[in-house]
Every structure is written in C-alpha cells, then in structure tokens.
Amino acid sequence: xxxxHISPRGKITFSVHGxxxxxxxxxxxxxxxxxxxxxxxxxxxxxxxxxxxxxxxxPLCRKARVRIxxxxxEGVPFxxxxxxxxxxxxxxxxxxxxxLWICYQFIWDIRIEGNSYYSTQTLLRHMREQDVYCGKRxxxxxxxxxxxxxxxxxxxxSWVSVEKEGTVLNxxxxxxxxxxxxxxxxxxxASSLYAEKEGRVLSVVTRSGIPKVQAxxxxxxxxxxxxxxxxxxxDGGTVVGYQYCQADADIILASAYSYYxxxxxxxxxxxxxxxxxxGLWFRLGEKNLTLHERDREPQTEWExxxxxxxxxxxxLLPVSHGLIWEKKYDYVNARYxxxxxxxxLNAHFSDFFEHLDKKVMQITSNNVKIQMxxxxxxxxxxxxxxxxxxxxxxxxxxxxxIERNTQAE
Amino acid sequence: MRTQTSRxxxxxxxxxxxxxxxxxxxxxxxxxxxxxxxxxxxYFSCTExxxxxxxxxxxxxxxxxxxxFFTPDExxxxxQMEAVSFY
Lengths: 409, 87
What we know:
Chain A is α+β, with helices and mostly antiparallel strands. Chain A has helices at 21-30, 51-54, 58-64, 76-85, 87-104, 120-129, 143-153, 179-185, 338-354, 399-408, and strands spanning 11-18, 35-40, 45-50, 66-74, 109-113, 157-165, 168-175, 191-194, 199-208, 210-211, 218-219, 224-227, 229-233, 239-244, 248-264, 266-284, 287-291, 300-304, 307-310, 316-335, 360-366, 369-372, 376-389, 391-394.
C-alpha cells in the first residue's frame, strides 16, 4: 500500500474540458511544465500540476481553447491556508501538546515497594524532608542522592533503588532485620538468662554459662536460668576469681495460655437500603474541588472512588477525579445462629493462634471449647505449649568479693 | 573581415549508430513504459496513446492507460499495455 505523501510545493488536480486537450498537454510540455497523472474521464481529461506551474497555464488554456475545472488541492501551501481558517483548533492542539510536555517534566506519583518495617507514609515523609514529593520537577530530583539519604535516615533499609519512569518515581527498597546485631554488640558484656514466664522446665541445653535449673524444675518469672558469671576455684575449692561470659542456652518450658472469648448472640445488623450518587470530586495537584452537597444525613456512609488521569501506566497526570456515593443504612436486631457463632469464635481463635508468641515451638494440648449459653457463645480453655524461654540481662558481678578474698590472703 | 563561424553539431545519441537522437522506449514489465526524445503527444485516451517521434508514430494500446508524468524530456505511461505498434 502506498503511503500518503504531502507535497511541500502543493499540487492541483483539475479537469480539462474542450476540443483539444492533447494540444493543451503539448503546450504545457513545451512551456516547461510538468504534467502528472494524466488520465481520461467522462468527456474530459484529468491531470495534476504543481501550484507554481498551475499559475502559468491561463494563456495556454486560451490558446488551446480548453476550460479547466479544479477538482482537488493538496500540499503544504493549502494546508497552511486551511490552518489559518481553523487557527483556534490548531492553537488548541499546540497548547495541549505544550501542556502535556509541561506535565511530563514533573513527578505525579510515587510508588514504593518492598517495605514492611517502614510504612509507605513514613518513607513518603522522609522523602518530603529530602524535598521530594508529588509535583516536584523531575530534573531537580537526584535519584542517587535520594537513595543514599533514605538509607541514612532509615537504618533498616539495606538496599534502596530510585528510578524515574515517565511521571512516576519508583522506589524499591529491601529491608534487613538487625535484631541479631544487638546480641553480637553485647558480646563483650557478660549476661545471664532469666525466666520471663512460669512453667515446668522440659529440657536445658547450655552452650555457655552455668545452668541454674534442670529439667523438671518449676520456675517463676525472674528466676535465674543460666548464670554468665563462672567462678574460678583454686585447689582448695576457694573462689579466686570470676570469668564472665554471655550466657547462651536452649531452655524449653511447658507453659499454659488461658483463652477466653465471649460473643453476644443478639446484635444490631447494618442493612444498606440504597446507594445514591451525590456528586463529583476533582483534584488538581494538591487542591481538591468537590461538586456535591456537603450535608450529611444520619445513618449514612459516603463512598468515594478515585481515578488518577493517565495517558499510559507511566505517564500520569496531576488531575484525579472521583465519584461520591451516599449509602443509607438501618439497624435491625438480629441473632447469630449457633453455626455462625461457632464460625466467628473459631475465626477469633485462629487469629489468637497466629499471633501467639514466636517462641512457641509446639502446641501440646488444646482444651479450648465453645459453650452456648443462650444469650452468648463463650470459647474458653487453656492451651499448653512448649516454648523456648530465656531473657538475656547483664550478669551480676561479684568483683568486690574477689578483692576481699585476696586482701585476706 | 569576414569571420568564419562553425556550425554546431547536434548532440549525438550514444545509443544511435548514426549520430542522430533516436527515441528511446524502455519497458518495465507490461505495465510501465518510459519514452524519451519524442516530439509530441498525438492522441490520448484510456485505451490508446499515440506519440509522434522524429520519423514515425508510436501507438500504445491497452486498458486503463495513464500518463504518470509528462515533461519536455520524457514521459511515463502506466496501465495494462497490450500492443505497441509503429507506423
């Protein structure tokens, strides 16, 4: 398929009427004009001339006794003339293109991914402190400097990547957990392990320090489990000094958790009666414009949709719009069925189970039962578990006693 | 004093063994024909085109014939050509 070509010189296609069109063609040729696309039509011939050649054919027409009728004008000179008559339209196109170009110079969305310790709002706040926000000029954002600044402000971030894509700033982060670092930092300090829960000790495996409890002992919170202070004895069994270490041991404890959850069988159920369209909401940059009645009736909920205008996934515009819906509701007295109540209590119990202490290694018995009492459903019981305990605290040093012993000697 | 002026020789056509500019017709398949060194267009319709050359006429017959361009030096005829004759 041949592509359309816009002639820069301008072309005019016209029909030639008269007795001797061939003579007219020959006269044009002798006059140095270039005829194009000469073809025969009904009672006439059609041909095309460049605009500057067309201006010279009047005497030739008279000489050959032919009449011409312009059929088509094409090319840049005619396009310019047409543009002059539709100036507002073309100025509008140019203005739109200019506006898009201006919009492309700014950041209109910041996408953060990979964060869990730092919330998106926290990172956005830190970025705002670095003078990076939605609406900032792209050229003014130094991606490397921003990444370095974020790493400095947020020590838990081990890797930060900042990338400008269209009008979107993509920030990818990786977080590292430095909980173990604290333990390694305290390596030089002597520490002992203390109990933080009550229960019976099931097993003790000591790696460093002197164990003060053994399997079968019943311990209470605050009891010393492993001592980080190791006495040095002479041949006579007298303490001549102390060696300090960081106590480390795996102490497994059989502990019990009590569980209680009560659910009232009667409750007020929210029933939505209808959804009505309230109005539009626009946002330009950081300014909001709402087109709706602001009066809010009792027992109504407002729902707002949000759409940011975009040309592509990476070319977002600073304009958003939303639809505002009003949802009315009524309260109705309702009662859970036994099955519903059990399902709800089971769901609550599953949540509790998921949020149990991370140190719990194994659940040995689960005695939680659900009891229906007419007015309410109660889930209660105990959960017996095996868990690892041992809270590291600085060891009590007996340095003064050593000195006294040496003075007495 | 009478000055002697030498008469200019007409340009010789490199394709002509007789030193006279001949009409050159170049076909590209049966749908395109270039004609150079012709005198004038004698007749034109969509089924027949007659071209006057130096010493004879050239008749092109066919269907949907059209002159793509027509300049002092050459012309290009397109269409479905069926016969070319000289008379």
